[in-house]
Specification:
Number of strands of chain A: 11
Low-confidence stretches of chain B: none
Distance between the termini of chain A: 41 Å
Oligomer: heterodimer
Number of helices of chain A: 0
Number of helices of chain B: 0
Low-confidence stretches of chain A: none
Largest sheet of chain B: 7 strands, mixed
Mean pLDDT of chain A: 95
Shape of chain B: globular
Structural class of chain B: mainly beta
Distance between the termini of chain B: 37 Å
Order of helices and strands of chain A: EEEEEEEEEEE
Helix content of chain A: under 10%
Radius of gyration of chain A: 13 Å
Chain lengths: 108, 115
């Protein structure tokens, strides 16, 4: 099946710093999403981005489908950005296949 | 606004007992998905809950351990049966392609601890 790899696994930032999270996938996809899981376990959908670039406030994402990767950019990070960021791609059942996530800690 | 309500949000259960988790969506959906997230791990699909037919289970998950009901297009339950400490996880329900949106939405999750 399709493999999803995320990097880095862990990231520690000072408040105000910028960061880039990467997601590589092993096969072509027509569904790619980025999620943020907060410390309480809630998964929030950040972007549905099978291709192209989107921006939402301090966050933006780019997927280059032909090269099988996606990037999530976080600018001017805040402590509330802490948590785990997951990349997920569409599976054969209509489900999502998740990467292992990037754990982000933003220090004040 | 769009809502997926999952209950309970957390529970502490004795080994050998069962827990039923409920997931209610405020819109009709064809497929609902149940995921497990073991401590410090990513999400793994348990099964796809189809209305009007038996759930489809992923490799490593069986109906006797994780029976699923899907009585209508807005509701599903997942039961974790004969629990052991290894079942301690977050369980999440999910839907996709509703409210005119392509992305997936998740319930709040059920944080289960088995003692």
């Amino acid at each position: 099946g399709i493999q999803v790899e995320q990097s880095p696994p862990d990231l520690i930032l000072q408040e105000g710093a910028n960061s880039t999270l990467r997601c590589n996938f092993s096969d072509s996809v027509n569904n790619l999403q980025w999620f943020h899981q907060n410390p309480w376990g809630q998964l929030i959908n950040l972007f549905y981005i099978p291709s192209g670039t989107k921006q939402n406030g301090r966050l933006s994402a780019t997927t280059v489908a032909t090269e099988r990767y996606s990037l999530l950019y976080i600018s001017s990070s805040q402590t509330t950005d802490s948590g785990v960021y997951f990349c997920a791609v569409g599976g054969s059942q209509g489900n999502l296949i998740f990467g292992k996530g990037t754990k982000l800690s933003v220090k004040p | 606004s769009a809502v997926i309500s999952q209950k309970p949000s957390r529970d502490i259960c004795q080994r050998g007992t069962s827990l039923t988790i409920q997931c209610q969506v405020d819109s009709q959906v064809t497929m609902m998905f149940w995921y497990r997230q073991q401590p410090g791990q990513s999400l793994t699909l348990i099964a796809t809950a189809n209305q009007g037919s038996e759930a489809t289970y992923e490799s490593g998950f069986v109906i006797d351990k994780f029976p699923i009901s899907r009585p209508n297009l807005t509701f599903s339950t997942l039961t974790v049966s004969n629990m052991s400490p290894e079942d301690s996880s977050i369980y999440l329900c999910s839907v996709e392609g509703v409210w005119g949106r392509a992305e997936a939405f998740f319930g709040q999750g059920t944080r289960l601890t088995v003692v």
